[in-house]
Amino acid sequence: MRLIALLLFMLASAADARGGSVVAAGGHWAAVIRGDQCDAESRTVAITGKGTVAAIAGFTFASGKGRWGQFHARLSRVPRAGASVIAGVGGQQFLLVSSGQWAWSRDSRQDEALIAAVRSADALRIQSRDGAGRRFTDHYPLDFAPTAIDAAAARCASLQTGKSR
Predict the structure, then answer these.
(1) How far apart are CA 107 and CA 136, in angstroms?
(2) Domain range for residue 138?
(3) I want to staple 52 with a disulfide (CB 3.0 to 4.6 A). Which of 48, 67, 134, 136 is the partner?
(4) What are the tens digits of pLDDT across the range 137-152?
(5) HSE of 93 in the Cβ direction (CA atoms, 13 Å)?
């Protein structure tokens, strides 16, 4: 229980540091609003060392621009050049596009498939190989993820129609 409270505190702190506000949080996920962008995000369960940036994964809903529900991840390490970055959800695998320490879904169809998979799975993992060729995996429990996704999507939909509260 303490770990969950600590993770929620860290998510809220990260949202504040990046200029956002948390509108829904539970389990390991939160819905964060940053201007006209709404994110459902989680931090990896791995404890990061001092001076390192925690890995995050989530879905972005941007009012009037970009793809609706685009999956994104900041990886715990930079993948080596040419290495595949794969998101695994339940029994499904998704090949992601990456650049530096970031990875994204390939298109809107993959975004929809990832969201559908997240709704029925317990965990998300993102795997690749670092510059030294070592495999690394970032793990994310999916408790509260569907609720965070719905809250972020609903908030950005209301921003599009001008009905934000």
Answers:
(1) 24
(2) 2-161
(3) 48
(4) 999 999 999 999 999 9
(5) 6
